[in-house]
Amino acid sequence: MKNGAFFVFALSLLCLSACKEEEKTEKIVKPDHPNVLFIAVDDLNNMLGVLDKFSGTKTPNIDRLASRGVIFSDAHCQAPLCGPSRASLMTGLRPSTTGIYGMISDEKIRSENNSATQDIIMLPEYFKKNGYHTMGIGKLFHTHAPNGVFDESGGREKGFGPYPEKRFVWDGFGSSDRKKYGRTSTDWGAFPEADSLMPDHQSVNWVNERLKKTYDRPFFMGIGFLRVHVPLYVPQKWFDLHPLDSIKTRPYRADDLNDVPPVALKINDLPMMPSTDWAIKSGEWPKIIQAYLACISYVDYEIGRLLDTLDESGHANNTVIVLWSDHGYRLGEKSTFAKHALWNAATETPLLFVAPDLPKGKVIDKPAELLSIYPTLLELCGLPAYERNEGKSLVPLMNDNDLDPQFAITTFGMNNHAVKSKQFRYIRYEDGTEELYDHKNDPNEFINLANNPDYQNTTTLLKKKIPTNNTIWDNNSSYTFQPYFVEQKARTNGSDATDVKVIGAPR
After folding, report:
1. Predicted confidence (pLDDT) per residue in 177-187, tens digit
2. Which residue, 64, 165, 242, 259, has most beta carbons within 10 Å?
3. Would strands 70-76 and 35-41 be described as parallel, antiparallel, or unpaired?
4. E strand or H helix at 348
5. Separation CA 254–CA 501 (nearest Å)
6. pLDDT at 31 over 70
7. Which CATH superfamily is domain 23-398 in?
8. Residues contacting residue 74 through CB under 8 Å, at least 6 positions apart
């Protein structure tokens, strides 16, 4: 072959290669619909740097993610417990509609005996049915995910380890009757030695391997972090970021529960958890908060690894990101260290969206619901709305096109509900007793105003938001960790309270 002919041949090969590379890039950057990165963080409350609510919080990676999109500073879960909260988010249905008030096996969320869920299309499935390649790892549903939801599943590490040979501080039983209550995995301390020994680190590795690949169709990638769930174990370097002398404890009053109804005290009967009084007397309160902050910083680091890989992959410009947690977490508020309540510290959760056409660095202080994640993702991805969704898309609100008052509803057990407006929290229990808190003047919910006649109009307005359909407990759902819920299910379903199977890991 002569030099001229060879030059033309080589040039044509280069052009062909370049065209193929361009075609490959086009498939990454401009598929028919954007990709989805779905990030769940277990038991994470609103202690985020971007919200500037808590001194000493270090979340640089979540903060940089928020700078790319919209974060809700007053988002709330549909149930202050992981099983029913996640089932609600993934089905798009309220707990009061499904009767899933307690823990439930992933495989039994959709049941022939439950008319609300028997043919429901779960969130990742909806994307799969619309042509997405679906992938997931870690705690996304209560355990991981029902079989077949993901095209590729990385599963989930059992439990919330790794664990030391012996607990560091808390035995998990407290001083409670061990036959009456469950055992919590609550404990705190520096363990293990390296990040690489944490299941969450391995989950990020799994996701990063797949983010580096190219796809001929849009993908849905879910990752569910196990931390910040107890036990509050992460390597020592994350504790070092939060020196004990820098820790501020949460606002607390010893008489805080004197003005709440008896049913609220039954729900808050959690002797297996450390009490705030115990934490004060033992000197452990700052140490528990330090451990919680250390876990947040660890998870933030792992989220940073995700974002770095996403940015380097070529997918970033056409990927919708949502970050959420299944509920809040009390760190001494209302007498204990737990979720398990209809008060603000237990229901408030992070909620953050990033998408190509959304505002950047925007904070919205109006109430929002996790129930809105399903319809919001569909709208952001240009998919048809799913008519079964009970939540509403937040896209209009994020674009300043929804000026109506916003409300968030949380349910804990049958016919126990909280309604959050921008200023107030209203709680109504199954026996008709009530609580009302004015967050403008009482952000810590110390003063119950339900019996104050000056607030009757507010109570009447918020009461109208309570769900009118309150389905009995789904037979596959139960919560044996707390006696009140065992009794309520037996009473409302007409079953024997002693014949209840334990579902879900210890809390």
Report:
1. 777 888 999 99
2. 242
3. unpaired
4. strand 348-354
5. 36
6. no
7. Alkaline Phosphatase, subunit A (3.40.720.10)
8. 348, 364, 365, 366, 367, 368, 408, 420, 422
Q: Which residue has the tokens 């009490």?
A: 275
Contact 457, 463 (CB under 8 A): no
Copy the structure tokens of residue 19: 């065209």
- Residue 66 CB partners (closer than 8 Å, separation 6+): 48, 50, 352, 361, 363
pLDDT tens for 245-255 read 999 999 999 99
Calpha distance 380→355 (Å, rounded): 7
Q: Which amino acid is at 454?
A: D
Separation of alpha carbons 48 and 60, rounded Å: 9
Is 33 one of the catalytic residues? no
Percent over 90 (pLDDT), the chain: 86
Task: Identify whether 142 is a catalytic site residue.
Answer: yes
pLDDT in tens, 62-88: 999 999 999 999 999 999 999 999 999
Coil, strand, or helix at residue 211? helix
What is the model's pTM? 0.91
- Mean pLDDT over 139-165 rounds to 94
The domain spans of the chain are 23-398
Neighbours of 489 (CB within 10 A): 26
pLDDT tens readout for residues 132-143:
999 999 999 999
Dist. CA 227–CA 225, nearest whole Å: 6
In whole angstroms, give the CA distance from residue 345 to residue 444. Answer: 9
Under 8 Å between Cβ of 46 and 73: yes
Say which of 76, 77, 133, 142 is annotated catalytic. Answer: 142
319: Cα separation from own chain's centroid: 20
At residue 21 the predicted structure's pLDDT band, cuts being 50, 70 and 90, is: very low
Which one of 82, 295, 315, 381 is the catalytic residue? 82
β-pairing, 219-225 vs 35-41, is parallel
